[in-house]
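Minutes, project check-in
Item: structure for the 747-residue chain
Input as provided by the requester:
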Amino acid sequence: MTQNSETESRKLLSRLQAIMAEAGEGQERLDKITDLIADSMGTEVCSIYLLRDAETLELCATQGLAAEAVHVTRMRIGEGLVGRVARQARPINTANAPAERGFRYMAETGEEAYSSFLGVPIQRLGERLGVLVVQSKDEREYSEDEIYAIEVVAMVLAEMTELGAFVGEGAALSARHTSQFMFKGTTAQEGAAMGHVWLHEPRVVVTNPVADDPAVERVRLNEAVDQLRTDIDQMLTHVSKGDKDQAEVLEAYRMFARSRGWMRRMEEDIERGLSAEAAVEKEQSSARARMETVPDAYLRERLHDLDDLSNRLLRLLTGQGTDTGADMPLDPVLVARNIGPGELLDYGRSLRGVVLEEGSVGSHAAIVARALAIPLVIHAKRISTEALNGDPILVDGDQGIVHLRPEDAVSSAFRDKLAMQAEAQERYASIRDKPATSKCGTTISLQMNAGLMADLPSLPSSGAEGVGLFRTELQFLTRARVPRRGELAQLYAKVMDAAGDKRVIFRTLDIGSDKVLPYMKPQDEPNPALGWRAIRVGLDKPGVMRMQLQALIRAANGRPLSVMFPFIAQFDEFTAARDHLMREMDREASLGHVLPSDLKVGAMLETPSLAFAPHQFFEMADFISIGGNDLKQFFFAADRENERVRRRYDTLNVSFLTFMEQIVHRCDEADTPLSFCGEDAGRPVEAVCFAAMGLRNLSMRPASIGPVKSLLRRVDLREARSVITEARGSGAQSVRGAVMDWLKRQS
């Protein structure tokens, strides 16, 4: 790259900056910019296409093409060469555009006279905003210097678009961050919330994309990078020895922070005329664009590391920390790319809802959101780049839909939905202390799931008869080290104190699969859901399990204790786990500690294999709980993290209900109490069907107890059973339709 080309680039950006500083409308600025670029690049044509909606580009300004085509010519993303540039997020450079695959001739533009074509994406942090194009009559490919120069200009245009420099009439020139958006994501926790956006990581705004003195900007960049490297080294020295995951992330940060290629590219951008901040963001945008196309999970994670590192560097350069001075709204809905369980717990119940760009149904954040009963939508792509602090937002966790800056009609309909839910909650409160007894006289025990001390205040207000599942892994997931036995004993004692005379079933540590402890080395397994997890980890590495069992025994301190082992797949796993518990009981007795007044030992039935265990298993287990979420995915061979398949299989499928009936029968034979624990237990229609099939205990999130109890009290389970039997006999794949029709006829 010659010094002359660098000087010409800076001249172009200086002239561009002067245009931006002039008073004028957005359209006027765009027209001047296309004239300037065509003149500086020595091309006959320069055109700017901007997105008018998520899938449509519009010609917004041109020098060289027909003026009447402006705001008339439109194309879909992927259509023609311009559409391909937008879709692929990378330049197209060709000497003979009409001969290129996918070329589309737009008659109204008069572009048939031009052969050469160079199009580059206008994008910011991976978000496509438009396309910048130059064309010439001569058949020639543009040089690397010319491509580089036009990319730098596109970067500045992206920043100015973000800052509202091109606002005018029409959708393509509408102000950013003002339009309504609907994001279709994935439900990770049901519920509805209405509030205002609170960004977990506020956006860094680059207000000075162009700089006059490259030497000054290089010094600023190098000083910020030196500080960044120092910060990373200090963080590494404070990472605990057992926290290998965090150490690996920081080592990746250190590698990128010392990358000569990364520094060289940013310094070249500065030589072209960009400020230090704009140079960092240009590289960050490139990394985000690459993320969209990289299929390899490891490489995507490394690009995420580079993206996070760029954010840290931008905050050092701009002085814009995570604390912007803004006050959290009274009704905050947290918006983030992703978030850890500890960070989410720090916000606590102050949040109305959570919306993430990433995440998974079984992620740590989802587990905490369920524990806090906060609606959570994941996979809401690009919401963190579109949302601003304080924007009104609606979260429909039931449908996995988020409305950002909604229209009045949408807000009004949503308020009606919330009002109906509030009215229903009032009705549920009136039956809180009444039993879930059906019209036929069958009483179903409804219990709640919990995992945090914060859950326990919901026990009396929800109408739950006890805690059917206390997830003990949350105390492990939210810490940087293994909790001490004394800490756990104190916590479990407080849980029992809060529950009073109501039963609490403690599930032992359920880790592995999607729940990897911060201090646990991830296992390189092709299918972790079927791998080394839960009781398999506990039996292979019994130290932590023994410590947890001791803590539970000491927490009981003479009170009844119920312990449940997770993910039991065969009888000998249960006997081995039970033996561990009995040995700890003997050990505690020998130490003179007070033993539980009554001990119940149960298992979670989450694998189909356990349903066919020897009869002795059902006799030995004091109780069994069907883990519906896992059992369903294994029964249908449908990964519950995979959106393509998880919704294909209905819980009320005839095969699944018949399997449930078999489990009920085996437990009845052994006179072993059976419960169903999982999301489906909290869905009223499913709950009625489970009860009709013989299940007498259901455990669910606290907010679901009212709706489930209300419906159970209004139906005759014998009639429900007849409807199910008739539907099964008809050859129907699912009984849902027949049951729904029957419920509509109920008073």
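Outcome recorded: The chain has a mean pLDDT of 86.
No further action items on this chain.
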